[in-house]
């Protein structure tokens, strides 16, 4: 079905709102909380925070390269990005909170200007999006890493249309990769999408937010059900 496209300003607002929710959670973290493991193998909450801060700075770098006319990716290399995350994860909780906040604010100030920009940008090797989809890519990062830190995503956490757009974004990105089984995703909001290799399709039904977390993180909520 056609891509789900909520108003651009709604996506930009959702980035701000979801970032505020994340910061509202992390401000209460003790040193032990920051050191706790996440659902991402080998990463603590400190690693996730460092990754989000580096990601925001990287997106700012990409956006500003559009203005300069000299294309740049988010990171000089994957190895450099991993080093930055490992070093960033060594910071104390207050420093991590400040980095999350300041990097997110810097990126937020750049997003509105992308509304009508359909130039392709390379965020990482093999990962290209139109510039106007950078806010959606950032929103995905914030929402899913909030889940990685232990947040339970509720239907009410995302305004109507945003969860559906995030689900469609990931369906399009995954496409028909051979490492995914054939899946048909049917959202309560009306979106229908398919991913995975050819074969007999398994159907998963439920709210877009739940389908998003199941598709990207393998978390199955009681609101999801399988059907042919």
Distance between the termini: 18 Å
The helical percent reads: 40-55%
- Assign the CATH architecture of the largest domain: Up-down Bundle
Which strand-content bin applies to the residues? 5-15%
User: The CATH topology of the largest domain is what?
Assistant: Four Helix Bundle (Hemerythrin (Met), subunit A)
Which secondary-structure class do the elements indicate?
Answer: alpha+beta
- Average of per-residue pLDDT values: 93
The number of helical segments is: 8
Q: Note the overall shape.
A: globular
Strand order of the largest sheet: 4-3-5-6
Poorly predicted parts: none
Radius of gyration based on Cα positions: 18 Å
Query: CATH superfamily name of the largest domain?
Result: dinb family like domain
The biggest beta sheet reads: 4 strands, mixed
Number of domains: 2
- Secondary-structure element string: HHHHHEEHHEEEHE
The top-level CATH class of the largest domain is Mainly Alpha
Number of strands: 6
Describe the structure.
- The chain is α+β, with helices and mostly antiparallel strands and 228 residues long.
- α1 (8-26) packs antiparallel against α5 (93-111), α3 crosses α4 and α7 (162-174) packs parallel to α8 (208-217).
- The chain starts with 7 loop residues before the first helix and ends with a strand.
- It folds into two domains: 1-151, dinb family like domain (Four Helix Bundle (Hemerythrin (Met), subunit A), Up-down Bundle), CATH 1.20.120.450; 157-228, Nonspecific Lipid-transfer Protein, Chain A.
- The chain is built from eight helices and six strands; from the N terminus they run αααααββααβββαβ.
- 51% of the residues lie in helices and 11% in strands.
């Amino acid at each position: 079905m056609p891509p789900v496209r909520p108003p651009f300003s709604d996506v930009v607002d959702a980035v701000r709102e979801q970032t505020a929710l994340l910061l509202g959670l992390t401000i209460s973290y003790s040193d032990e909380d920051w050191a706790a493991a996440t659902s991402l193998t080998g990463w603590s909450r400190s690693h996730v925070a460092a990754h989000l801060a580096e990601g925001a700075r990287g997106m700012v770098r990409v956006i500003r390269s559009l203005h300069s006319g000299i294309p740049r990716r988010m990171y000089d290399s994957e190895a450099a990005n991993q080093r930055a995350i490992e070093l960033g994860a060594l910071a104390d909780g207050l420093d991590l909170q400040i980095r999350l906040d300041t990097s997110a604010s810097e990126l937020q100030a750049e997003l509105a200007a992308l509304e009508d920009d359909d130039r392709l940008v390379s965020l990482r090797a093999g990962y290209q999006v139109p510039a106007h989809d950078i806010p959606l890519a950032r929103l995905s990062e914030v929402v899913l890493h909030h889940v990685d830190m232990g947040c339970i995503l509720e239907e009410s956490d995302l305004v109507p249309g945003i969860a559906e757009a995030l689900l469609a974004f990931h369906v399009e990105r995954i496409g028909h990769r051979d490492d995914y089984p054939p899946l048909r995703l049917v959202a309560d909001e009306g979106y229908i999408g398919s991913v995975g290799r050819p074969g007999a399709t398994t159907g998963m039904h439920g709210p877009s937010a739940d389908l998003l977390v199941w598709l990207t993180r393998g978390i199955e909520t009681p609101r999801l059900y399988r059907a042919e």
